Amino acid sequence: MGSFRFHQYQVVGRAQPTSTNEQPKIFRMKLWATNEVRAKSKFWYFLRKLKKVKKSHGQILAINEIFEKKPTTIKNYGIWVRYQSRTGYHNMYKEYRDTTLNGAVEQMYDEMASRHRVRFPCIQIIKTATVPAKLCKRENTKQFHDSKIKFPLIYHKIRPPTRKLKTTYKASRPNTYL
């Protein structure tokens, strides 16, 4: 999977300097969004909730997209989530296996939408971490930690070597198992 819907951004911002507070505190957040504009919007949403800083009296110092160091090796990711359902707010821990954190986050958004009917705006990612194999909790991720794991081909149809030998009807039924 090459291109991801969600990208990880690091947004750095602060309240605008005033005469009373010439050096306001700088805040940094890692967020997932589809583009930089939405990442900035999410940054102000959380900063307004956590600290008394609004977009109208604040400034963005930097915004950078964060990329994976090794996007070719498979890893276990743990994601701590807070989401709003029809009945209230819930906390949740999820585990995924993927090559990148962006891929794991995309899996999480897809799963939350299908299993819990929770859409993107109602989900807040609290924390993410790369989890070593021995600390994994969920059976769904543990089943792939076997070094001798096999994925058998259960349906194998023998195809004709050339197009000239292809026919619609055969005299004998094909053998589809090995």
What does this structure look like?
With 178 residues, this protein is of the alpha+beta class. It is built from three helices and six strands, in the order E-E-H-E-E-E-H-E-H. It has helices at 36-50, 101-115, 139-142; strands at 7-15, 26-33, 58-66, 75-84, 89-98, 123-130. The strands form two sheets. A three-stranded antiparallel β-sheet has the order 2-1-3. A three-stranded antiparallel β-sheet has the order 5-4-6, with helices on one face. A hairpin with a 4-residue loop joins strand 4 (75-84) and strand 5 (89-98).
| Largest pleated sheet | 3 strands, antiparallel
Order of helices and strands: EEHEEEHEH
Mean pLDDT: 91
Distance between the termini: 30 Å
Strand content: 25-35%
Q: What's the shape?
A: elongated
The total of helices stands at 3
Class by helix and strand content?
Answer: alpha+beta
Unreliable stretches: none
Q: Count the strands? A: 6
* Radius of gyration computed on alpha carbons: 24 Å
Helix content: 10-25%
**How are strands sequenced across the largest beta sheet?**
2-1-3
